[in-house]
Amino acid sequence: MPRLSLTMKEGTVVQWFKKEGERVEKGESVVEVLSDKVTYEVEAPASGVVRKILAEEGVDVPVAETLAIITAPDEELPEVEAVAEAPVARVEERIVASPAAKRLAREYGVDLVQVRGTGPEGRIVEEDVRGFVEGAKVAPRVREVIPLTGIRKTAAERVSLSARTAPHSTITMEVDMSNAAKLREKFEFSYTDMLVKAVAKALTEHPIMNSTLEKDQIKIFEDVNIGVAVATEKGLVVPVIRNADKKELKKISSTLKELVEKARDGRLTREEMSGGTFTITNLGMFGVDMFTPIINPPETAILGVGRVVEKPVVVNKKIVTKPMMHMSLSFDHRVVDGVPAAHFLEKVKQIL
Length: 352
What we know:
Radius of gyration: 28 Å
CATH topology of the largest domain: Chloramphenicol Acetyltransferase
Distance between the termini: 46 Å
CATH class of the largest domain: Alpha Beta
């Protein structure tokens, strides 16, 4: 398992391109692995035959651990590796249970390992099994078990880290999207395209939002790299538009379209998913009005965007309808206070 980043501790085997016994050439892709939401094809270090696959698809493997063994066609499988792959015998603890408890367990198909004994020295008695069976009837039935691996596992670890370490504060504003709607209709730019442009411009005027907290130092980034959260079948990924403040809206739109397509096809590179300084997440297309986004570490803030919907508003003491949208800004309160965060969000609103 290769180390794909400085912080990587393990990777997930996504797909094997070769089967045991198949010929492989040096430099040919053998297996696809996943780490930090990035997929990477591991190439064969030498030509030969794939003699033994030690890690099945979907399994998490520590960095530097063996994934498979390649040998020459007439070479014996190394003895040390063969021993390493030998299954470890399970030592089962002796279960002490009464005959009546064993009979009842067989009747209901209960594994006595799961039953807590209340008899002398932990002996399982009939009532223990009966209580276990009654409890099982109360518990909800499980329809499906989904392993927390790959992108979902990485995302879970990152949001947990963010929630634990960064004290979140969230402010919201409603913005009139009339002009944005006209621009969208005329040039077919998406609202997300315009949000990237507006946020990038606002960050140049409010650089404290484009920063990270590292130990006891706040580091303000020179580059403005906007990440956009994209939902895929495997989970949430965040491709990054680099130097978004220096790109025209047309370029932002084409770049974002390409990144979203690659994200959904699982073709994003490590470079296309790293180096972000601020993230935008848009749930408007799912009918969501407002939500509280979780900061994408190690960034300082994230902007959550809801749907654009026609609403009655008061203009010059008259009620008219306008396309309105809610923006929710979550920020790390260790780095930014409420007032500078509000000034930044107001600037985004003004640009839109």
